[in-house]
Design brief:
249 residues; 10 strands; P-loop_NTPase; nucleotide-binding; binds adenosine-5'-triphosphate; AAA+_ATPase; ATP-binding; 35% helix; alpha/beta; Rossmann fold; four-stranded antiparallel beta sheet
């Protein structure tokens, strides 16, 4: 189901979370909205609550308070309606080692419910978008780490999800592979995909995120258009400086 252009792709209000048995909230009153085609950066130091937030937004765990709507659908009441609309792409490579890149893509596409005729269309398109044609028929374990990361994302977007969660997709990658992957992510958004992007690398977020939310200890410390947050009060030279001053880390 494509996103309705008149509504936000993601609308979160007053999100709070305390894990069972926990002494305190790990998320407090998180409110945000993401529009179609945005790359929205979710930034914070270790333990800030990014993974908890993504796990709630992707319906893996329930919040203690608040609401989440994805393409207008209440994600807490109707997680099974929301799941076909989203894709959660984990940091770890989640591919089958005994299959080639193309076979992995076919397998995941089928899991997402694509028919053969749709797969025959989407597969070459996605291989081209991620510049993966020359690697498509190699065993995935024979591909470099950077290429595996690209296949990892390619497998998760074959069903045209309205909202894509990318959890630190460039960890451990060299500069060349990282830039290649960032270019592909930007192209995805130019084609109309909406992305929530978590990273520890501020220069990455500054390069590709139209808006960011900086959080720590489960609390939103700053949120807004990336360039406005940096230059707004003339204090910061870049996102890294803003992040360090805001979080103190
Ligand atoms: N299953 C859990 N049970 C109890 N507490 C948890 C659980 N998962 C996370 N936490 C706690 O919630 C807080 C936020 O953790 P979370 O993993 O969401 O942060 P993060 O920003 O993703 O950190 P990192 O960048 O290190 O992955 C931390 O204090 C963590 O210890």
């Amino acid at each position: 189901m494509p996103a309705d252009d008149s509504q936000s792709v993601l609308e979160v209000r007053g999100l709070g979370k305390r894990y069972p048995g926990g002494q305190k909230d790990v998320l407090t009153d998180l409110t945000l909205r993401v529009e179609k085609g945005e790359i929205f950066g979710l930034l914070g130091p270790n333990g800030a609550g990014k993974t908890t937030t993504i796990s709630i937004l992707s319906t893996l765990i329930k919040p203690s308070r608040g609401s989440v709507r994805i393409c207008g659908v209440d994600a807490l009441k109707h997680p099974f309606k929301v799941r076909p609309l989203i894709s959660l792409i984990p940091q770890e490579i989640a591919l089958f080692p005994k299959l080639t890149g193309r076979e992995n893509m076919r397998y995941f596409g089928t899991l997402f419910g694509l028919q053969k005729i749709e797969l025959d269309l989407k597969l070459p398109e996605t291989l081209a978008l991620f510049d993966l044609n020359e690697f498509a028929d190699q065993l995935i374990t024979k591909c470099s780490g950077g290429i595996q990361r690209r296949f990892n994302i390619a497998c998760g977007i074959l069903h045209d999800p309205a909202l894509i969660f990318l959890d630190e997709p460039t960890v451990g990658m060299d500069v060349h592979s990282r830039n290649a992957l960032l270019d592909r992510v930007q192209q995805l958004s130019l084609k109309g995909s909406t992305l929530i992007y978590t990273t520890h690398y501020m220069e990455e977020a500054e390069k590709i995120c139209s808006r960011v939310l900086i959080m720590d200890k489960g609390i939103c410390l700053a949120q807004g258009a990336t360039d406005e947050l940096i230059s707004g009060n003339g204090k910061y030279r870049n996102l890294n400086e803003l992040f360090l001053k805001t979080t103190g880390k």
